[in-house]
Amino acid sequence: MISLSVKILIEMTDKSFGIKLASELQKLGVYAVVSDEEIKTFDKEMFFEKYRIIVTDNPEKYIQSCVQVIVISSDKNIIDMILYNDNMLYVSKNIGVNSICSLIKFHTNCGGDKVKAERLASSFIREMGIQTNLKGYKYLRTGIVCASLKPEIMEHSTYEIYDVIAKKYNVQSSSVERAIRNSIELAYERCPKKISEKFNYPVAKPSNTELIIFAADTIRTWGL
Question: Which CATH number fits domain 112-222: 3.40.605.10, 3.40.50.970, 1.10.10.10, 1.20.1110.10?
Fold first, then answer.
């Protein structure tokens, strides 16, 4: 079954098409997030129970929170929003239900644990409010993925993981440490609540090590 961290946004212009697609997505264990005036007249609980459809007045919030979103839409504003976000793919409804489902299977199942870890790490970091345009974002994502796949790397020294990240991006380890710390500080200054809510225990501004270890443990718990 596909991880429930994957969500699909469907902007339906054809109700029967949307229901048929949602029925197929249900077999894959995928949530369908729908924004459509006609569909809203139906019983929301019934749709969720039968098709795993989430009917919402604000589908954009799901775009921002998803690890990967496959969108069927004719709405230019929503398409533009997709194109400006990481790890998101736009798909035309014109390719048909079977092709859409095949594409979803490919993008959610291929790549093994590394791809899954990258998606989950991206989601974890963005939900804390860390900006994707910062160097610290990509360094932190790489560190979390590495620690989730090889937890022993964090047992001796945090500097070992800095060295791995530095080698990948051809920079100094000190630059990696500083960029990650700055990105955490900026996110904490803007909205400390976002960061504290990610942890299961009271926390102020987390250190680099604390955040990487906690994120990696969380990702492994999610099913790697």
Answer: 1.10.10.10
